[in-house]
Design brief:
alpha+beta; five-stranded antiparallel β-sheet; three-stranded antiparallel β-sheet; 16 helices; about 10% strand; elongated
Length: about 400
């Protein structure tokens, strides 16, 4: 075919027709690249005042639109312009059609990226991500383009190409197994809102603890609190154990669950000495006084019971403790370190720094006022030689 083409002698009319086809395509390219593409981009993105030049810098949209329309013009001229040699017309149509399909798929890929960017910039979309769906769309577009190009060059129907691919379905499934698994996992994660952009995710066995910054088809990117990045397959959020802390932020209450240990030798019935000591409390005396009135009740006949009630009233008096959620001071089973007393409550300070500050204030207060109740917070001795050796020392 190439030898026939080279040996073919074109007349003046045929040469002018071929030149007209080339010039027509070139003029179309220049007109669209410098003028008409701007209008098309503004119409596609749905605004008249948007900066189409910024979009062009990111996607080279003007160039691609100009190529698409210039190839269309070349195809039309090759088919309908008189005096074009049949061989040149056929080669021009086949090559231009293949290039047209490639550039259209490329342009559609850029449109999908533009859709994803616009979706992410809208405030009402929250932390939802459509990047996985966009990547699925790109795969479909490029696969369709590949089938159409092969069908065009082979001069066959695309259905024949698809039927031949059906025979190789097992090989295709083997090659794209990870993509298919990721596709299913991405759909499940996105549809159930299990993971969203900005969620705080913790996966202890993978040493991952941070914020989700990107949700893609195959991988999810997490920025850890030490500013390192971790990338893991999206399917891990279906098959692996993880903790998503974001519902805690949404609820407005973060749990405080920590115990302090009481030396059991300091637990005793309330007596006048303890009452006198409580009157010296530097703060919160308005809480201690009402608690002293019913001290004859069995529930308040010990300094530890009174101390637990006092801490509960202190928590209730704080403005950052959620009283509409569970709040209690409970005893845990005693151990070698003493009797554990656990504070279990929820604070409205869900931010990490504010949460730690609130928790520190509570336990600093507990340690500071415990001696007014004649209670001793247990601490393991740092030097074994300082252990009491006599009964008098122990007392």
């Amino acid at each position: 075919m190439l030898q026939e083409w080279l040996s073919h002698s074109m007349g003046v009319a045929e040469g002018m027709a071929v030149a007209g086809m080339i010039i027509g395509g070139g003029l179309t390219f220049l007109g669209f690249n410098f003028f008409i593409s701007r209008i098309i981009i503004r119409r596609l993105v749905g605004c008249e005042d948007c900066q189409s030049d910024d979009i062009n810098k990111k996607t080279r949209a003007y160039y691609k639109i100009a190529l698409i329309f210039s190839l269309l013009v070349i195809i039309l001229l090759a088919l309908y312009l008189p005096n074009i040699p049949p061989l040149i017309s056929k080669v021009s149509v086949l090559s231009s059609t293949s290039l047209l399909i490639a550039f259209v798929s490329w342009f559609c890929s850029d449109l999908l990226d533009l859709l994803n960017n616009r979706y992410n910039t809208r405030q009402e979309n929250g932390n939802h991500s459509i990047k996985g769906y966009v990547q699925i769309g790109k795969i479909i577009v490029f696969l369709a383009a590949l089938i159409l190009i092969v069908a065009t060059l082979a001069d066959k129907s695309p259905l024949i190409i698809l039927s031949s691919l059906g025979a190789a379905a097992a090989v295709i499934l083997l090659l794209f197994q990870h993509t298919l698994i990721s596709l299913v996992a991405n759909i499940q994660v996105s549809s159930s809102d299990a993971i969203q952009l900005g969620d705080w995710v913790e996966i202890p066995h993978l040493d991952i603890n941070g914020v989700v910054t990107d949700l893609a088809l195959h991988t999810t990117t997490i920025k850890n609190w030490d500013n390192t990045l971790s990338r893991l397959p999206t399917k891990y959020f279906i098959t692996e154990h993880y903790t998503n802390w974001q519902p805690m932020f949404s609820s407005g209450g973060r749990r405080i669950k920590r115990a302090f240990y009481i030396d059991q030798k300091t637990i005793r019935f309330i007596n006048d000495e303890i009452v006198a000591s409580l009157k010296k409390l530097p703060v919160m005396t308005e809480i201690a006084q009402p608690l002293l009135l019913p001290r004859a009740e069995e529930s308040l006949n010990s300094n530890l019971a009174l101390f637990r009630k006092y801490i509960k009233h202190y928590l209730m008096s704080r403005g950052d403790i959620r009283m509409d959620m569970l709040c209690m001071i409970r005893q845990m089973p005693a151990g070698p370190e003493g009797l554990p007393v656990e504070i279990y409550c929820f604070t409205s300070q869900v931010g990490w720094e504010a949460y730690e500050e609130t928790q520190a204030e509570i336990f600093e207060f507990v340690v500071s006022v415990s001696h007014y109740f004649h209670l001793k917070i247990y601490q393991r001795p740092s030097d074994i030689h300082h252990f009491p050796t006599t009964l008098a020392d122990r007392q």
